[in-house]
Amino acid sequence: MLIFLPNRFTMRRGFYLWISLIACLILASIATGFQKKNKARLPNILLAISDDQSFPHASAYGSRVVETPGFDRIAREGILFNNAFSAAPGCSPSRASLLTGRHIWELEDAGSHASYFPSKFNTYTSILNENGYFVGYTGKGWGPGNWQDSGWQINPAGEEYNRITDPDVPEFIRNTDYFENFKSFLEDRKRKQPFCFWYGASEPHRRYKNGIGEGSGMNIDLVDVPGFLPDVESVRGDILDYMYEIQYFDAHLNKMIEYLEDIGELDNTLIIVTSDNGMPFPRAKANLYEYGFHMPLAIRWGDVITPGREVDDLISLTDIAPTLIEVLETRGNAEINIPDMMTGWSFLDILLSDQSGLLEPERNKVYSGRERHSCSRWQNLSYPIRALRTHEFLYIKNFKPERWPAGAPVKYNDQMELVPGFHDIDDFQESYIYKNRIVDSIKYYFDLAVKKRPMEELFDIRRDPYCLNDLSTLPEYQSDLIELREKLNSRLIETKDPRLFGNGDIWETYKRFNLMRTFPDPDWIPGNQNFKE
Question: Were 225 and a residue from 28, 74, 231, 418 both cysteine, which residue would form a disulfide, CB within 3.0 to 4.6 Å?
Answer without folding.
Answer: 231
